[in-house]
Amino acid sequence: MKKDSNKSELRNIYDSVMLPNYSPADFIPDRALGSRLWDKDNKEYIDFGGGIAVNSLGHSNPTLVSALNEQSKKFWHISNYLTNQPAIELAKKMTDLTFAENVFFSNSGSEANEAAIKIARKYHSSRNNPRNEIVSFKNSFHGRSILNISLGNSEMHRSGFEPLMPGIKQGEFNDISKLKELISDQTAAVIVEPVQGEAGVYEASKDFMAELREMTQKKGVLLIIDEVQSGVGRMGVIYGYMNYDIEPDIVTSAKGLGGGIPIGATLTTKNIGECMQPGTHGSTFGGNPIACAVANEVIRIVSDSNFLKNVLEKEKLFIELLSELKTKGIFSDIRSSGLWIGCDLVDKNANDVLDQAYSEGLIMVSAGSSCLRLAPALNIPNEDIEKGVALMKKILMG
Ligand SMILES: Cc1ncc(COP(=O)(O)O)c(C=O)c1O
Q1: What is the CATH number of domain 9-61+305-397?
Q2: Which atom number of ligand 1 is nearest to the Cα of residue 196?
Q3: Residue 116 in contact with residue 266, Cβ under 8 Å?
Q4: If you average pLDDT over residues 197-226, what whole number do you get?
Q5: Which residues contact 332 (CB under 8 A, 6 or more apart)?
Q6: The whole model's pTM is what?
Q7: Does 75-302 carry CATH code 1.20.210.10?
Q8: For the chain, which residues make up each domain, given as ranges?
Q9: Which residues sit with their C-beta closer than 6 Å to ligand 1?
């Protein structure tokens, strides 16, 4: 085993036994609470990454811990031959809060999107009008399965994994002009993110989303909104589409929904969902009672209007504090959409900055090689925002 003397023994074992598709930080987390985390040497970190927009209520949130503990004493898994109260209650909450009437539970964003595309194709074929083409957008990110890398257009994500899924066309995000040419009588659905997070937090414009809705409706094409990263309060509304005054046909959700417990959901209307009769789709773990019990509490807490108002207040605080880094020419641009912030670095590599930040006790994530992405817990204390931004200034301004 090739050892790196800067890394602990445990971290060296990681390098020898794990598939090398990730390159995690050198330190190993030991415990975490709220928006703070401690490593095995008891060093403290402020968490601005939120597990990439997943830990919506912070680490070890007592309400979530108690929901998990309570359900874990009842039963963990019963399969979809049986149903369970937490799943029913969660679906009821999600349908009460959104356009949707039907919910399918899975375990991740990729699976939620997989279900969305299958529902779209089945919907058309069940009406004796099979359509199989999908339109997605350049710079989008929908996950890492073969379907989802085919929907995205990242060379890095696709290279070596071909053949990709056929029948996918890509439009320009925020540019409706050429979309007409891409949509045909073979188009089953258009899939779009309200904010392209992995690309660096770029919001869809109001006009673009309104025109997209109108065009898809006119042509009988389903509109799928991928809210895997934008959903569950991230944008200061329970689902981002609500900022656009549109009604989608299908919405996908994951990440923040479980507050750190894996769960995915695909939401749709009864009219569309009725094509998915028994046997058409499934997931062994989808609707897992423990995941659903935790997600019930996440949705209950995040959907409170005061909680959502606070998300927008915290966004304001971040932007106010970060603006000095733009004025001083460290960032060329800062974009935000709720507690989801992209900071473009002028002349630094984002991954180098992440490493420097670890040394100073700060966790962030990146989007590409020149954008720092912040997606902290939605209830991050203001004190932690102030402390973390002070660390960013120390790292970036010296
Ligand atoms: C918009 C979007 N869709 C889908 C996914 C894929 O989710 P998962 O990694 O849970 O499969 C992600 C993950 O980052 C995402 O940001």
Answers
A1: 3.90.1150.10
A2: 1
A3: yes
A4: 97
A5: 326, 344, 345, 346
A6: 0.97
A7: no
A8: 9-61+305-397, 75-302
A9: 108-110, 113, 141-143, 193, 197-198, 226, 228-229, 254
